[in-house]
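Pasting two entries for a bug report.
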Amino acid sequence: MAQQFKRTLITTALPYANGPVHIGHLAGVYVPADIYARYLRLRGEEVIMIGGSDEHGVPITIKARNEGISPQAVVDRYHSIIKRSFEEFGISFDIYSRTTSRIHHQTASDFFKTLYDKGEFITKTSEQYYDEEAQQFLADRYITGQCPHCGNERAYGDQCESCGTSLSPLDLINPKSAISGSSPVLKETTHWYLPLDKHEAWLREWILENHKEWKPNVYGQCKSWLDMGLQPRAVSRDLDWGVPVPLEDAKGKVLYVWFDAPIGYISNTKELLPDTWEKWWKDPETKMVHFIGKDNIVFHCIVFPSMLKAEGSYILPDNVPANEFLNLEGDKISTSRNWAVWLHEYLEEFPGKQDVLRYVLTANAPETKDNDFTWKDFQARNNNELVAIFGNFVNRALVLTQKYFDGKVPAKGNFNEYDQQTINEFVAVKAEMEHLLDTYRFRDALKEAMNLARIGNKYLADMEPWKLAKTDMSRVATIMNLSLQITANLAIAFEPFLPFSAEKLRDMIGLQQWEWSALGSFSLLLEGHTLNQATLLFEKIEDNVVEAQIQKLLNTKKANEAAAFKANPVKENVAFEDFTKMDIRVGTVLDCQKVPKADKLLQFRIADGLQERTILSGIAKYYPNPEELIGTQVCFIANFEPKKLRGVMSEGMILSAEDADGKLILIQPRAKVTNGVEVK
């Protein structure tokens, strides 16, 4: 039998404060965590949701160095953007703090010192790369070199982003410091390690035997790590940005960010509840749930529990419902390539549509496997589900009540068999929703909530009160009463998922928020209660809106391709005399048209200063309206031997440049010149 808890502590992965948050973060962590927290609050349970920015680590120092500012300036900027975005999006944190806070530094230092005093660390000395010019040890990301697997010359000390292979700095060929550009040297350094191998036995029993209910992707990854055998993991590193290691012989060393960051959950709880924080972290009747993405599974299921167990007084997580990754338009979301839908930009470009994104990200959540976000699917789910099902039913129920009963809840008569069948369906859906929400299956729970709206739509369509109004208004009153009760139920059912729309719906029916226990009741709205003015819950999203977003991504892709472009190596040298043999001239295009039955060829008729000549060029794909070239000037090689192509004699070669994306662009003089002049 599952343990009964008095309260629930929800933590959410701390986003790095070196950039804004995007839809991948939302789908993986923050929307599911918020759904769960709102659901528990509706049930009247004691719950807190803890979040904050992770403001230490190498990515932040790299960002600061690249921008020529301090790490503190970087985290101040992005912490503000992230916090404001979460607030506007309705992520209902009880606190959203940061790991640069004084209370966090103190908490992390104390935690390290407790483990150190208990002898829970081991000390190891090893050789690491050191930049003699910068006089500092180099983190993996501060070392670049040639990948030994694919030859990429800009591989990092931890990974080659060209072939995706995980690396160590010692794997790189011809390593260079990203700080000074010099060749680093190996130098001895001492660090403290958490011996995870010491914790392997109890972790194996705790996870593999006692938590078989964990999601398959989480359980499977933990089993894989445990089966490979755990190794000691460094808890400190040589860096000047982070929580200083609180030991006299640790000058210039900080706590490794993976050790420091999860302690942020504790320090943020202390900041929120300075007098009662311990009951949330040390009382076995507290249920702790970590919401994270799959890249953090090992830290929250193996490493952080080992830290808590080693300290000795903390509870362990009851569940870690990690999600997989969300891709974008068939490609992996990448902050470095700007291939993302950023939350702060979405909020600006789609004002008032927070719930549309919440709905789409939940309906397409990567709960058990990677999923793909596309703007066409975003549009389709809004128009075909939110507008056509949920919004349509609510609007019809309220508008018909206004039309037939002056906006007041009519008295119901006796329910017939179909009415009762509709009510029974609601009760069954409520039980299923609770089961799904309790087991972190939010995508399926949302589907059940939308099924409630479908039930309402079908009920109205089958009953056709607009026809009965001509003959039986008492029956119409019963139909509309039941429809309004369904509407009120929808405000409860969608509250965890679509809080802004639920609030708007409550305003329209003129009632305050109900508790979850009221879901399934068909006496929520009393006879004679006056409804407020009905407005549309959702509105259609037109093609041009999503096409603009798709074009925005295409522009990003083109910019990335241009930035990544690397010119081909220069060909072998040729004698100047050989070059002078080519007769390159300028001529005016007199006519230009596609060659019949040849997709690639354009036929140019050119005035070359002596006569007219015909030249065929394989650039039709890039000039779909060739007649627009008439009257322009082009550069061509005049002394190529004529060659027959598709039955046409071509007398030369038009000069084009191939862009980074493979597009061919005509070489043309910037100003008009005399036909036949030579290019020198």
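Entry 2 (this is the one that rendered wrong in the viewer):
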Amino acid sequence: MSQNSPATQPPSLTEVEPYGVERIPDADRSASPLDLFRLAFGGANTFSTCVLGAFPILFGLSFWQGLAATLLGVLAGALILCPMAVFGPVNGTNNAVSSSAHLGVHGRVVGSFLSLLTAVAFFSISVWSSGDALVGGAHRLFGLSRSDLSYVVAYALFAVLVLAVCVYGFRFMLFVNKVAVTSATLLFLLGAVAFAGDFDASYAGIFTASADAATQDLFWPSFIGSALIVLSNPVSFGAFLGDWSRYIPASTPRRRVIGAAFLSQIATLLPFVFGLGTASIIAAKAPEYVDPAAPNFVGGLLAISPSWFFLPVCLLALIGGMATGTTALYGTGLDFSSVFPRLSRVQATVLVGVLSIAFIFVGRFGFDLVQSISTFATMIITCTTPWMVVMMLGFFTRRGWYDPDALQVFNRRQRGGRYWFAHGWNWRGMTAWWVSAVIGVLFTNIPGQFVGPLGDLAGGVDIGLPISLAVSAVLFLSLLWFFPEPRAAYGPEGARLVRTVDVPVPPITGPGSGATEKRPVLATEGP
């Protein structure tokens, strides 16, 4: 089809997106890997990422030690994340629906649940950090009172704007992130100019040659902990990449899609290093703002900013809050509509948005949840990463082949198909996921917030995430080998690395199933 064909022209920005999680027809897929880059990078090119970038300084590392931890975390996170981008173009739907192939028709709700928790957590972080920055900048610039009413208005402004963008859908969100990528990048570069005179790369942290032995023993736990916090940012996009890449044509080379996802996270070194560098300045000039017991990065940033940078701080808060909020909230509303089919995508988005907004206000003004939200986010990532491993290894063993019709069985309230397995559950993938997630939580060590029962076995180093990664990979492949899946779940070329078994597959029955689908599918028939 010609590139200029009317069928491939993207819809208007003000046209509400018509698609839910059903497979998007090839003729309506007009996005590109560059669009995926813009969405993934735009969603992280914000104050929220700067706050994560400040953690190495909060943990006592020097600037150069913190930079090494940041590079390690971003690179490892990008490598873990980028393969998750291929499911969208292949299946034309989001990653939770694609997970039906590996966790079963009913098991796909695990991905929906994880994406909901991740969205609420990171949406809250973005609104809180951006709202605080906006109010603080307006206070310094215009004398606006830092009252509860000011924060309520700022949070409500972000939340309502984000919800409106998500209701309109993918195209409007893409437009917002196109603007956010360019403008936020320029503002961060302007910030580098603003703080260049105060920056000192020789900031030493607490792990100096004169530090006592007890302090020195904390170096590796602090270094690894910093790297894992940084790594949590790219990994948090794992459940959402399919929401955006599903608009990329299936014929697009997979290496370009994977490359776009990888580079989008490498680009986040800009806000990460901005947060790291400014945190080192804050630690030197206003150390009360980096007290690990009550850190306040936004307040410290405003305290050391030249007066002419207050307005850019407000703009960064507004733009960043919009970009992060839309990427977090959009996909959850999309997936929620498939779990509760009586709700349209727009209705589900509004419902999830209202619940998230309520959580934001209750957490900010009703309880002391703002500090613990970072722990909440870390725990979610620990549970999400094994799910991603199951997905990626499943893609590899299936040679990237999927049955689009069988993936939609849950959404249509049908039964049967290639991915029905045992009453809609693939216990192999489910077992690999929950066992690895539980082990990861047991080994988690977040000093001062949460330490699992086995969290001290590595000398205080948080090894929960690396262990859950390794266990999920070994366990899933072992289960596939010793308890083979039906041959019909694999493509015409058969399985890679694992065995299969020839067993009948139940026919797809229920609403919308055709007469030709009433007979069992034999494993030997293939797709």
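Dev reply: Rendering is fixed now. As a check, the viewer should reflect this: Residues 1-8, 515-527 have pLDDT under 50 and may be disordered.
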